[in-house]
Amino acid sequence: MTKPRLYSGMQPSADSLHLGNYIGALLQWKQMQQEHDAFFSIVDLHAITVPQDPAELREKTRRTAAQYIAAGIDPSASTLYVQSHVPAHAQLAWVLNTITGMGEAARMTQFKDKSAKHGRDASSVGLFAYPILMAADILLYQTDIVPVGDDQRQHIELTRDLAERFNARFGDTFVVPKAQIQKDSARIYDLQNPTSKMSKSAETPAGIIWLLDEPKVTQKKIMRAVTDNDGVIAFDTQEKPGVSNLLSIYSAITGSPIEAVVGEFEGRGYGDLKKGLAEVVVGELEPVRARALELLDDPAELDRLLAVNAARATEVAEQTLAEVYDRVGL
Ligand code: ADP
Ligand code: NA
Question: Where does ATP bind (predicted)?
Answer without folding.
Answer: 11-13, 20-21, 149-151, 188, 197-201
